[in-house]
Structures are given as structure tokens and as C-alpha cells.
Write a structure and sequence with these properties.
The complex is a heterodimer of chains A (281) and B (280). Chain A has 281 residues and is mainly alpha-helical. Chain A folds into two domains: 54 residues, no CATH class; 171 residues, MetI-like (MetI-like fold, Orthogonal Bundle). Chain A contains twelve helices and no strands. In chain A, helix 5 packs across helix 7 and helix 8 crosses helix 9. With 280 residues, chain B is mainly alpha-helical. Chain B is built from 14 helices and two strands. The longest helix of chain B has 32 residues. Classes of the chains: A mainly alpha (281), B mainly alpha (280).
């Protein structure tokens, strides 16, 4: 069958794929469309174009931002995500290098504990962890960074260890013989080699932390000014009596925009990182 | 080099270790211990033996949640893997715009569970409103809603892993099959699928783990309604802890059971499917 019209591939397959693109994008268009409608019209005419009296301009956006303090939530989400990812990359790569290179009973026990922590679901420790975090006064954005380092350490250490094992020992030995201390060896020789794994680890952790709801909700809560975006969205829907679907639509659009922008810029790294993470994890 | 490095333990390992102790090891050990205790805060616990576990296993909500989760997981794992694999097959052919398709299909995976849940809640309620019902009227709407949501979120992710697997299948083998007169379907079943078995292992593992651990989407889409009929395991544990005073011990026992299920599935899955892998 040679029906390759103008090199688009098999026309039937191409057609199916185009149809699926429409299906996949429908929910996004749906919330975008409804975010410009008055709140009463969202439940009555959910699928019509926001025209005439239905169109309310940016009213939903201003309402949604005001009710949830969206920009502050965005700021805290960004702070917690960026700080946690940087801290995780720095400390877990150091730990992974040390426990791979120094073979003692303690380091191999640590390795197995990190691997073990990967199969433990968050619900197992959520109650005790949030109580402990309260007692240690970690119920603030800086404390969150420490908690993310601890709970994210398993996967990150495991992935770095896998890569460190493949680095030939001779490179590090040469650096040590030339007079580098372990710290210099790590930062000047090992760290640059670890860069591809560091990008993968950064992406996996960033996706998880940015979207995480339960940990910030339990540790920081909703009655503080430190709400993150998922907590703010749930706060809007979870606690108010009359549900304001107008604000919700606008807030959902606002919550998606940063993710899509980030995705379009770092698409290649994100897809590669996710594949590498899945294959190793 | 080991000896000169040993002194550097405090710099290299201690920061991670302290955070790991606070965020994981201590809460985990306390969690195991407290599952045998009666308590409301972690400091006033009283040892009660297995009574929390007995209460957990006789709790109707917990058994319902377990059954609902299993029903959900079976269908979700099947649909996500089949759709993901078919998409990967289509996208590894010579088709224009492969990158664009991949980008769009993968995109929902980056959106968080809470936001996803509310997007679909409004979509599904919009469709159901045409029929004059809402999602909270019948648990079957919530069930299929969760299935659709999960497919939308994970198909692209699973597809990407299958694409990586399919690209590793050498064209020599496929050509050899063609020369030997194998039909397309025969090539797919007898050559391609055995060759991508490692990817299938990973994808099954990922979808099962994700289905069992699902929380955010469940909370946002239905909140467990109507009357906890669409509550999954993770949400039921959360409700036991935070919605009912005096049931913290039972909640912790449920959490331990949940942990054993999740860890057990991960192990079995790996052991079972590793046997079928073909080295290439």
C-alpha cells in the first residue's frame, strides 16, 4: 500500500493522531473558555462560547487571585520547589558519591535504607512526620525544604549511586594523587561528570514538589500565608460553602500556565529525564 | 582512597542523613510502633496490641476502599498500557509531526493531581448536566471519571517509555521477520512485544503503583462521594486520621497495611515479569 500522501505517513494513522490531539486538548480549552464566563453560566451552558452577556472579561481572574492570594501561592511554590531541588541535588549527590566510594557496613546499610524508602507510600508516614515537623518547628517554607530533602533522598541517592558506579575510579584517583582533597575532587571532577543525572534528578523532583499537595497541606496548613498553588486550589474548593466555579476556572488556567511555559522551554530534558527516571526507579 | 575520605562523613553524608532521619526513618519507625497503640497525638500513646488491625480489617469503609481501588486499578492498568502502547506504535512509524504529537500527549502528565481533578470535575459535570445528573449521584460516574482522568494523565507518560523501548528494537530483526514471511501481526506478537518486555515490566509497575497510591485526583474529583463509595485506599486512610477523632491508631494500622500492599505489589511484579524478559 503506497498511499503516503505528501510524506505525512499513513493517512489513517495521521488522522487518528490528529483526532487524539483534539481529544487531549479539549479539557484545557474547556477551562480556558469557561474562565471567561460568568459563574452562573458555567453550570448552565458549559460548552458554549463565552459571548454576549456570558462574557465577563477578566472578572473571574481578579476574583480568583484575590480569594486565594494566587501570586503569593505562586511565590511560595516557586521558592519551595527551587530551593528543595537545589538542596536535593547538592546533598544527595555528595551522599551518593561517598556511600559508593567508601565501603563500610554503615554506608551499605544506608544505601539499602534509601532504596527501601522508595517503596514506602507517603500515607505510611504522613501523620507521624507532620507531628514531628510541628515539634521541631519545621512548619514553614524553610522547614519544608528540609523535609523534601529527607523524603526525596531515596530516589535521588539511588539514581546518583547508579551513575557514580559507572565512573572509572582512575579519574578520581588521579585527582587525589595531584593533591585534591575529597571536596575538591568531588566538586571539580565528579560533579561535572554527574551533570546529566543531576538534570534528571532535578526534573523528577521539581515535578513532584511543584505539584505536591498533601505534604505542604499537612505541615504548613491553610491558615498561614505560606499556601502553595495546589493547597490554594483545594482551599478555594474545599472550604467555601458556595462553590465559585468562575474563580476555580480562572485559577486552574493560572495554575497550568507556568507548567506549560516550563514544559515548552525544557521539553527535551523533561521527556529524557522522565524516561531515565522510570527506567531506573 | 577510602581511608582519607572516611573523615569527610560529616560533610558528605550528615546533611542528607539528618533530613532522612527526620522526614523518613523516625516517622516510619514511630508509625510501625503507633499502629499497635491507642493515641490522639504522638506523645500520649498506650499499647493496645493488634486491636487497631482488627478494627481496620473489620472496617467496612476500608474493605470498600480496597475493593474499589482494585476494581479501579485493573481497568486503569489495562486501558493505559494498551492505549500507551498503540500510540507508541503509531509514533514510531514514519509520520510527520511526531514531536508535536508526543509533546501534546505527554503534557497532562506534568499537571498536578489536584488541578487535574478539578479540570475533570468541571468537564464531567458539564457533560452529565446535559443528561440532568451530577457526578455525585451515582458512584459509577465517579468510577469512570477517575478512569478517564487517570488515562488522560498517564497515557502520554507510558507512551514515552514504550517509544524508548520500541526504538531499541533492531531493524535487522524486524527485516529478518519480514523476509521470513511473517505478517505484521505475527511480527508484532512474536518479535516486537518480546523485545520490549523490559519496557512492559516498567510500565505495568508504574501504572499499578500509581493506581494504588492515587490520592490527589481522588480528593479533587469526587472527594470520595457519594457517601464514600468512590473512596480509594489512600483517601480512606486520610479520612480515618483527620476526619474522625480517636481513630488515629486505626488510621496508622491501615497505613501499615497499605504500605505492605504497595511494597508487596512492587516486589511480585518485578519478580514475575523479569522472568519473561528477552535479552537483546
Amino acid at each position: 500500500m503506497k498511499t503516503k500522501g505528501k510524506g505525512f505517513g499513513h493517512p489513517a494513522v495521521f488522522g487518528i493522531l490528529c483526532g487524539l490531539v483534539v481529544v487531549f486538548l479539549t479539557p484545557i480549552f474547556f477551562i480556558l473558555l469557561n474562565s471567561f464566563k460568568g459563574k452562573l453560566y458555567i453550570s448552565d451552558n458549559p460548552f458554549s462560547w463565552p459571548s454576549g452577556e456570558m462574557f465577563v472579561g477578566l472578572e473571574n481572574y481578579t476574583e480568583g487571585i484575590r480569594k486565594t492570594g494566587f501570586f503569593s501561592a505562586f511565590g511560595w511554590s516557586a521558592f519551595i520547589t527551587v530551593a528543595s531541588v537545589l538542596v536535593i541535588i547538592l546533598f544527595t549527590s555528595m551522599t551518593a558519591w561517598y556511600i559508593t566510594r567508601v565501603k563500610t557496613k554503615l554506608t551499605s546499610a544506608l544505601y539499602y535504607m534509601f532504596v527501601f524508602s522508595m517503596v514506602v507510600p507517603f500515607q505510611m508516614i504522613m501523620f507521624t512526620m507532620s507531628k514531628l515537623a510541628d515539634m521541631l518547628h519545621l512548619n514553614n517554607p524553610v522547614g519544608m525544604v528540609l523535609l523534601y530533602l529527607g523524603f526525596g533522598a531515596g530516589l535521588s541517592v539511588f539514581m546518583f549511586c547508579g551513575f557514580v558506579k559507572s565512573i572509572p575510579l582512575e579519574i578520581e584517583e588521579a585527582a587525589m594523587i595531584d593533591g585534591c582533597s575529597p571536596l575538591q575532587t568531588f566538586f571539580q571532577v565528579v560533579m561535572p561528570i554527574l551533570k546529566p543525572t543531576a538534570i534528571t534528578v532535578a526534573i523528577l523532583n521539581a515535578m513532584w514538589i511543584w505539584n505536591d499537595y498533601l505534604l505542604p497541606y499537612l505541615v504548613i496548613g491553610v491558615s498561614t500565608p505560606y499556601k502553595t498553588i495546589p493547597v490554594a486550589v483545594q482551599y478555594l474548593m474545599g472550604s467555601y460553602g458556595a462553590k465559585d466555579y468562575g474563580s476555580l476556572m480562572a485559577l486552574l488556567v493560572l495554575a497550568i500556565i507556568p507548567i506549560i511555559v516550563f514544559y515548552l522551554f525544557c521539553q527535551k530534558y523533561i521527556i529524557e529525564g522522565v524516561v531515565a527516571g522510570a527506567v531506573k526507579g | 582512597m577510602g581511608k582519607s575520605m572516611k573523615r569527610y562523613f560529616a560533610i558528605f553524608v550528615l546533611p542528607t542523613l539528618i533530613a532522612f532521619l527526620i522526614a523518613f526513618v523516625i516517622p516510619f519507625v514511630m508509625g510501625i510502633y503507633l499502629s499497635f497503640c491507642d493515641f490522639t497525638t504522638v506523645t500520649n500513646s498506650e499499647f493496645v496490641g493488634l486491636s487497631n488491625y482488627i478494627k481496620a480489617f473489620t472496617s467496612k469503609e476500608f474493605l470498600n476502599a480496597l475493593w474499589f481501588t482494585v476494581k479501579f486499578a485493573v481497568v486503569a492498568i489495562f486501558t493505559i498500557n494498551v492505549c500507551g502502547f498503540l500510540l507508541a506504535l503509531m509514533l514510531t512509524q514514519k509520520i510527520k509531526g511526531t514531536n508535536l504529537f508526543r509533546t501534546v500527549f505527554f503534557m497532562p502528565n506534568l499537571i498536578g493531581g489536584i488541578v487535574l481533578g478539578y479540570i475533570w470535575q468541571s468537564m464531567i459535570n458539564g457533560v452529565l448536566a446535559e443528561m440532568g445528573v451530577t457526578m455525585l449521584m451515582d458512584p459509577k460516574y465517579g468510577y469512570w471519571g477517575l478512569i478517564i482522568l487517570m488515562n488522560w494523565q498517564l497515557i502520554g507518560y507510558i507512551m514515552i517509555i514504550y517509544i524508548a523501548g520500541l526504538q531499541n528494537v533492531s531493524t535487522d530483526v524486524l527485516e529478518a521477520a519480514k523476509i521470513d514471511g511473517a505478517s505484521r501481526l505475527q511480527t508484532l506478537c512474536k518479535v516486537t512485544i518480546p523485545m520490549v518486555m523490559p519496557s512492559i515490566t516498567i510500565c505495568l509497575f508504574l501504572t499499578i503503583a500509581n493506581s494504588f497510591k492515587m490520592f490527589d485526583q481522588n480528593l479533587a474529583l469526587t472527594g470520595g462521594g457519594p457517601s464514600n463509595k468512590t473512596t480509594m485506599l489512600a483517601l480512606d486512610i486520610y479520612n480515618t486520621f483527620y476526619e474522625r477523632v480517636g481513630f488515629e491508631g486505626v488510621g496508622q494500622a491501615k497505613a501499615v497495611i497499605f504500605f505492605i500492599i504497595v511494597a508487596g505489589i512492587a516486589m511480585t511484579q518485578l519478580v514475575l515479569t523479569r522472568k519473561k524478559e528477552v535479552e537483546n
